[in-house]
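Hi support team,

I'm filing this because I wasn't sure whether my run with NAP finished correctly. The job status page said complete, but I'd like someone to confirm that the output block is well-formed before I use it downstream. Pasting the exact inputs I used:
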Amino acid sequence: MRTVNVCVVGVGAVGLEILRVLRQRNFPVAKLTVLARSARSIEVDGASYSVQAISPAAFDGKPIVLFAGTEGEKGAAVTFASEAIRRGAICVDNGADFRMDPSVPLVVPEVNPEDLKSHQGLIANPNCSTIQMVVALGPIHRRFKIRRVIVSTYQAASGAGSKAAEALLAETAASVQGKPLPPPEALPQRIAFNVFPQIGPFQEMGYTSEEWKMVKETHKILHDDRIAITATTVRVPVVDSHCESVYFETEGPATVEELKALWRESPGVALIEEPAYPMPVEAAHRDEVFVGRVRPDPTVKNAFSCWVVCDNLRKGAALNAVQIAELLIGL
Ligand SMILES: NC(=O)c1ccc[n+]([C@@H]2O[C@H](COP(=O)([O-])OP(=O)(O)OC[C@H]3O[C@@H](n4cnc5c(N)ncnc54)[C@H](OP(=O)(O)O)[C@@H]3O)[C@@H](O)[C@H]2O)c1
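And here is everything the job wrote out:
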């Protein structure tokens, strides 16, 4: 089998999961280079990796680069992606910096793999909360045309990076032991024994950046700006795996049985039948997007509710990026 040199940038929550996924899926890696801001040795599931300090020259001879660094002006992808592309790489970025750039495909392999064809060296991985929603709603939209979505999320602390997941554990331990809590740093509020409706800064009309991501990224991935979407994104004291309560209306007539039949055969989806339902403790470390609690709205025709749960670090980030890389090398 053909093997390729692969470079992973960032060894935080997503970067470590990428290393895990590459190994678990036997991605045909010739040489693996791991980059971060500072050099060190790390261990993931018993395997040792030598992390090098990032530099432009580190991208030479790396046809596949998976970015999982922080976002923004000083972030890894903004600083180094164009350099890596100039040196011959195709880059997949987990951050938000390029997602809405019209020249950058935003891809979920189960939903819009055809968009990969138009890439110019950079492909964006969607936001974790968007990925799980479009894996669930993509097949429904294709068959029945969705005209409206109302989504409320219950998002894990690890969605804000490894420091936020550590903060949840540290705050929980301090609370239980009756010690003073450290001031919140990785998240805007304390997270232990708390729930808060803010993910990202507040933007237009009082919605947060995460809420707008769910709207705009879904439109881009499904190629349909006409879907009316409104989101409320909420952080909950769970380490791993996001939950979403998703309400949607279809244009075409649909039944719960038809929706379930579609989900049973949709790639990447695992339908959980009543009386069971998906939960973070069971979705964590799994690849599937779990869909359950499927029910009709008794007050509105062709309107339904469901409950969607997915490991935000896995399909919500690392696995989706590795699946894109698999498509790029023709696996
Ligand atoms: N967490 C999630 O569920 C999730 C889901 C979807 C997308 N994302 C996105 O994925 C990206 C990574 O998130 P994360 O949660 O893994 O963050 P994280 O835990 O904070 O880790 C960030 C990693 O990036 C490295 N880094 C930061 N700036 C860099 C630079 N300029 N050059 C090289 N390395 C740099 C850091 O290096 P050092 O270790 O040396 O400091 C660190 O290893 C973010 O853009 C995030 O928005 C996250």
